[in-house]
Amino acid sequence: MKKIGIILVLIIAAFGCSENEYEAPYGDFNSFSWLTTKSTTDTDYVVALNEFIGLYDVSNNSISHNWYLPEGTSLLNKEFSSDNLVYTEFIEAVGPVNSDEKQINVLFNTPGIKEIQLKNIFKDSVTEGVKQEDGNWLVEKVFTVTVFDDLKPVFQVLKGTEVVLNITETDLPNIANSASWKTVSVEAGEKLTYVDMTTSGEPDSRSWTFSGGDKETSSAESVDVLYNSLGDFVAGSMNSIRKDPKPKAEVLKLIPLKIKVIPSTQPFVINGGIKEDATEVISFNVTGEIGVLTASEKDNFTVHVENTLAGFNQNIVVKSVAINSSDATQIDITLVAPIYNSDIVKISYTSGNIQSVDTRVLESFGPKTVAMDFQGAMNVAGYTGYEDEWGGSGNQFKKANTEGYFAQHNSNNEGGPLYYWRDDSKAYQGKSSMKFETTADGIPALARLQGGSFSTLSPVTAGTYVPSVWVYLDGSNTMNTIQFNFNADPTATFNFDLSTTEKGKWVRLTLPEITLGDISSGRFDLNISNTGQDDAIVQKLWLDSFDLLIVEAR
User: Fold this and answer.
1) Alpha carbon of 313 to those of 307, 343, 345: distances in Å?
2) Which residue numbers in the chain have pLDDT < 70?
3) How many CB atoms sit inside 10 A of residue 351's CB?
4) How far apart are CA 46 and CA 37, in angstroms?
5) Could you give the 3-state DSSP secondary structure of residue 156?
6) With 493 labelled, which of 66, 110, 136, 411 sits at a CA distance of 20 to 30 A?
7) Which residues have a Cβ under 8 Å from the Cβ of 168 and sit 6 or more positions away?
8) How far is CA 494 from CA 380, 472, 486, in A?
9) First-residue to last-residue Cα distance in the chain
10) CA distances from 410 to 299, 427, 500, 544 (A)
11) Exposure class string for 263-285: b at 16+ Cβ within 10 A, else e
């Protein structure tokens, strides 16, 4: 009779069953096969520490078989069931150990890579077998199991450069012991920095919760929390998270720290710039939470507006000042007359009686220039933000892994070069950006990313615009320029200078105002050439959200 070999992988739910409950396939035929609790046809598995895998040798007509369990594993006895919550009481033997049982349940006691071996001997030939000198056939199969350690959150809390709290893997804070927790004093307007340093168990992310600060939650590895309100608070907690395809797990650990926010000794001043929003509200932040702001304070602000082209140069009366409803460190100002983003707006304040919650008085400032709000004309959803992932039609590599573009000089396969590629690892806004990356030879004579036909997109109407794009330069980038253009209008060519752009962060580049006519046809292209930037190195940058910012004429 012809002998054959098979590999059969199924899921079995019960592990206290008799071997007779499974009948080997194909009658008298030789077969090498097994069952496992893992729903995969592979022999590479992942488990969490102190989890088990059940393995069942259902080979047919073998004359002997053996399981080998390495160090860091344990063999569970026949009384074990997958319904049990505690497995240690069922340990029969500790690895390294051999077993000639058909069915085994293996508990994983230590993290790392474990290799379980199944060795069967057949009298006649079998697929995957090796003929031995005695005429028998040997089949060996190795099951590789990656065992993930328990998640053990580790974190620090810093006040400036001083570490005020250091929590190790073995620290297990309990709210019942909170009376003994350390207290740190911070002045109103000061911050604490929380840093996740967890490595055990290979976490993928974390979730912080806070109380008393300017944010309630965060998923950042390192996060600054500003404390503006006077009072006593408990810091919060950190939840360490491991996700698929690793064994999913979450471990929450309290932050055993009490925070006492006291009055600040620092001056109460404007904090950062002043900006206008789309509703013409002007706002700025201050160095602390505001406790007192009366309506009469509007008279202490002077708003000067100048527009040379329109011949406008005068003060505009402040209609109202108010504490922002969602941010008590922000002051919102409304005016009695409209302002336009083509205006130059400057604000001054003469100290009156705007007080912080710890009774400091806001100091005078100004004149300070307002950053005006600009709305964009490139309003095709996701288009210049490269948000649309390649949908499966056409060549993914020539389409730069996105929709609406054609990377003319990309290769048509993954071997590259792939100068342009939609990348979701970086984004100024949204979920993705366009990465430009060269080979070690540097920039070619031309690398072009052709945009789709503008006749199918939103047209640009005649008007005055400020061309704008967000760029992120790799630290070793030495490029000088990039160019965007509408090929149907030679005047609509935008050359952005990169030579002084800060590296390693998103930076907005703008060009002087330009007046364009209607554009409703042709392509919108990105062109990068090696003219004046021909260094033989890998050049890399990311681009996001090109726009034509609409200039409002007064």
Assistant:
1) 6, 10, 10
2) 1-29, 39-41, 379, 454-456
3) 12
4) 12
5) strand
6) 411
7) 154
8) 19, 18, 9
9) 96
10) 61, 22, 28, 19
11) ebeeebebeeebebeeebbbbbb
Count of CB atoms within 10 A of residue 89's CB? Answer: 10
8 A C-beta contact, residue 367 and residue 329: no
Q: Measured between alpha carbons, how far is 327 from 214 in angstroms, rounded to an integer?
A: 8
The predicted structure's pLDDT at residue 126: 85
- Residue ranges of the alpha helices (H) in 197-287? none
Q: Position 73: which residue type?
A: T
Report pLDDT for 19.
41
Nearest 5°: phi and psi at 232?
-115, 130
- Show the tokens assigned to 121: 């001997």
Q: How much is the pLDDT for 5?
A: 33
Q: What is the DSSP letter of 89?
A: G
Other residues' Cβ atoms within 10 Å of the Cβ of residue 1: 8
Q: What are phi and psi of 393, to 5 degrees?
A: -100, 150
Nearest to 5 by CA among 59, 63, 65, 41: 59
The predicted pLDDT at position 200 comes to 96
pLDDT of residue 380: 77
Mapping DSSP onto H, E and C, the string for 431-470 reads CCEEEEECECCECCCCEEEEEEEHHHCCCECCEEEEEEEE
Taken in order of first residue, the domains within the chain and their CATH numbers are: 19-148 (2.60.40.10), 155-262 (2.60.40.10), 270-371 (2.60.40.1220), 405-550 (2.60.120.430)
